[in-house]
User: Which sequence fits this backbone?
């Protein structure tokens, strides 16, 4: 059950985070449009629609939508094959319609089958990509477009060769601005008197100071001055008529072209999968552990793509980089996403000249810190301590995301996870039983002998539909194996949603230690205390009746 959200309840923190996402999104929208062979303004339109339209319709509190780097190759090829951008927009409109249908047939439910270690591996991989891709921009080497996530780049080089190329194109001014920006961003949350200025995000101060420093360099004729090729480059219409000419509408005659339909279905499938992966990741980053209705998300994405195509925008998806920046900046609700879209709209109409003074180096500093938070050493240590059956899918996903792409990386991680589960459950049957209940009854959830991440969807749905003011008994007395995903899910339910909705929870039969990686020769035991803090630890040592539970 979901509570009605007041979009203005956390306006102070949401505005600050929306402002940071806007600063991150602006160069990404332009870079992705450039790499896609589309008009630069089409990327901005997509970002605006992703923020305002999808942000309003979505039930996600953290996710941010816009043009995605994962679609650049598809878009570039499609525009070339179809011969015209307006015909390509027809394919985007059809793709949005397909996504809308997928939402109605509840195709979004497949996101429940993404294991946590694979999602975390994907996030860490994206974090490493961000750091590797932004380091050249931090040093003033801007040959690769903003938002590129591919290891093999379109200019024939790759991520590593671009890193080595830094030394031939170092801009001292860019390095100075990067270091100053990093110092501001790191100290903003650590220096006591700066913490009081939460309404003003550190990223905005870093960007403003970066612009001022470069203007000083230019004004004094310093060798540190950064040229326009190292600044944000937003199209600046000289008149209203010129602005109107930027807007391209779909050429509906393309509906009869079979190639248009092939492109449409390709975009719909890839965009939907990337969106579901990003939504699952965004839910993991949400400190309040709220769940997103993925079927409604597909509908929102479909409508967003239809509107974007009608205004001349690129196809959009939920995107991890902007969602991560949103979460790290303290977003509380989807109002921050809407604010970022509104800021994109206002800025391109009112202050494009000022935006074009922003150095890419200062934006690189913001993104490098976002990347670090996604790929913190603590994350690697966490999965290493969980044992090889958690660590191997995690690290395999990470490496494949970095060296191949997001979809291939996640597919590999899921395949490895399934192989491990099948190996460990080859001769064991498992079940999950859910009883019907009426209001006021004590609800019994009996866990099977073996509960893997494949049971996550059923358990998640059951917990999510438990009414307020209920009494729940989760019984694991017959269970010999519980996956980390399920323990995390139960813990999050007990400590967040159950508290918010006055749901009384009893945990029965949770042994002091579970053999979580239950395969041949494995001795990896993790105590239940690792998952429940001292204030909420439950060790059931006796059977209780429903009447006793109600009295308690």
Assistant:
């Amino acid at each position: 059950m979901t509570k009605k959200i007041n979009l203005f309840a956390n306006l102070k923190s949401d505005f600050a985070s929306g402002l940071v996402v806007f600063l991150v999104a602006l160069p990404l929208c332009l870079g992705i449009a450039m790499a896609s062979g589309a008009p630069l303004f089409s990327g901005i339109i997509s970002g605006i629609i992703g923020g305002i339209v999808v942000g309003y319709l979505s039930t996600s509190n953290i996710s941010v939508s816009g043009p995605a780097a994962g679609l650049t190759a598809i878009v570039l090829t499609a525009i070339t094959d179809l011969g015209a951008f307006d015909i390509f927009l027809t394919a985007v409109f059809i793709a949005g319609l397909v996504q809308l249908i997928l939402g109605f047939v509840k195709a979004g439910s497949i996101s429940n089958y993404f294991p946590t270690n694979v999602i975390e591996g994907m996030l860490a991989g994206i974090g490493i990509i961000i750091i590797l891709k932004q380091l050249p921009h931090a040093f003033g080497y801007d040959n690769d477009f903003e938002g590129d996530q591919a290891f093999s780049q379109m200019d024939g080089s790759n991520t590593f060769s671009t890193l080595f190329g830094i030394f031939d194109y170092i801009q001292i001014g860019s390095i100075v601005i990067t270091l100053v920006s990093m110092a501001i961003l790191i100290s903003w949350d650590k220096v006591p008197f700066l913490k009081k200025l939460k309404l003003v995000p550190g990223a905005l101060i870093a960007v403003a100071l970066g612009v001022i420093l470069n203007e000083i360099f230019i004004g004094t004729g310093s060798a540190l001055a950064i040229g326009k090729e190292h600044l944000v480059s937003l199209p600046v219409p000289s008149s209203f008529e010129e602005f109107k000419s930027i807007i391209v509408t779909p050429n509906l005659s393309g509906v009869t072209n079979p190639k248009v339909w092939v492109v449409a279905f390709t975009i719909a499938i890839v965009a939907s999968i990337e969106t579901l992966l990003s939504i699952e990741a965004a839910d993991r980053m949400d400190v309040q552990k709220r769940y997103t209705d993925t079927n409604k998300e597909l509908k929102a994405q479909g409508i967003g793509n239809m509107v974007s195509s009608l205004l001349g925008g690129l196809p959009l998806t939920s995107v991890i980089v902007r969602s991560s920046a949103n979460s790290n900046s303290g977003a509380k609700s989807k109002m921050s996403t809407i604010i970022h879209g509104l800021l994109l709209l206002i800025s391109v109409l009112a202050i494009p000249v000022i935006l074009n003074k922003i150095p890419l180096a200062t934006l690189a500093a913001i993104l490098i810190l976002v990347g670090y938070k996604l790929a913190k050493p603590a994350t690697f240590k966490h999965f290493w301590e969980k044992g090889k059956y958690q660590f191997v899918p995690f690290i395999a996903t990470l490496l494949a995301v970095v060296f191949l792409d997001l979809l291939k990386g996640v597919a590999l991680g899921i395949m490895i996870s399934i192989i491990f589960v099948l190996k460990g459950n080859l001769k064991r049957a498992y079940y999950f039983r859910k009883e019907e209940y009426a209001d006021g009854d004590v609800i019994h959830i009996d866990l099977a002998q073996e509960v893997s991440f494949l049971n996550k969807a059923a358990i998640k749905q059951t917990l999510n539909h438990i009414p307020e003011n209920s009494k729940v008994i989760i019984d694991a007395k017959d269970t010999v194996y519980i996956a980390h995903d399920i323990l995390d899910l139960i813990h999050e339910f007990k400590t967040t949603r159950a508290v918010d909705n006055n749901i009384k929870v009893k945990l029965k039969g949770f042994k002091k230690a579970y053999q979580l990686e239950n395969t041949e020769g494995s001795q990896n035991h993790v105590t239940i205390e690792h998952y429940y803090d001292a204030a909420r630890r439950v060790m059931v040592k006796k059977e209780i009746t429903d009447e006793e539970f109600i009295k308690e």
Notes: Strands lie at 64-67, 316-319, 432-434, 442-447, 450-451, 471-475, 481-482, 504-508, 513-515, 525-527. Residues 426-435, 513-552 have pLDDT under 50 and may be disordered. Residues 289 and 492 are 7 Å apart (CA to CA).
